Amino acid sequence: MSRKFFIGGNWKMNGDVAFVKSHVNFINDTEIPANTGILDLDAVGIPAPHLAPAEVVIAPPYIYLDSVRKHLKKEVGVSAQNSYTKSSGAYTGEISPEQLKDLGIEWVILGHSERREIFKESDEVSAGTLSTLLLCPPPSLSLFFAHQTTQFNPHFLHPPPQFVGEKVAHALATGVKVIACVGEKLEEREANLTEEVVFRQLRAIADRIKDWTHVVIAYEPVWAIGTGKVATPTQAQQVHIALRDWLRNNVSAHVADHTRIIYGALPPYIDVHLTILEPPSISFVQGLSTARTAGTFVTSEGDIDGFLVGGACLKPEFSDIVRTKA
Ligand code: 3PY
Asked: Is residue 222's pLDDT more than 60?
């Protein structure tokens, strides 16, 4: 099964005008060779299931999207880090997929764990008023609202992620491709709830879309993002297989076989691994043993179709993925 290897770079809330300029220039000065991707792991003795060239997409903050898209070469995609469920209207601070499309932005990351965690995106109580009051309540209202809310919404404390599903459906309907993130928290993994959580997150999407052609699923174990904890390739692979099986059983065999499931929350040593995604040269020898270990992320069972790279995508290592072999 050939699925095009996918490398996403999530800048998060990082970068400034000077960085945008230098990073875009750097990527523009490189070439995506026809045979890059994991092919070159062969050269260091790791079997390579992915032979297709990598698709590279970078996701700068909103305010730089226009400039990045205008100046970045077309073969590298550009993604927003979020978008809203509506096309336009009185939604201060939000951005619609229609607006992304207007700028020529092809992708959007939705349901990232930082959106779910910090901004409570999975909260199905969509009224900004209520969530605002609950976030900053006058003391007397605090208990009242918590009580009222749990009265009419039994899911209030553990709301289903419907909001993310809506966002995915709206972005796709608009023609913007989606990197849909799923992942469990530490306490959920420790309670053996990993599959329950990621399946629920996937269900919220599957219930709302029919065509998966333009969806990439990013599995990002929340407990391994910026915590110093590291998911092993085996742990990642297990969840990827489970996600693919879920798609097979709940959507279709075709969708299971063709949907790319990429891994986020890379441990730091992946930086070294990324440098061998281009044809190896003498400079890679230094990182060879780490590369062999990290290489298992993509080779163990072939269910890891790429990475959503966080902090490392701001470093030169990220550009090594797309650097020409010349
Ligand atoms: C990370 O690896 O830190 C990410 O959150 C990628 O999206």
From this structure: yes
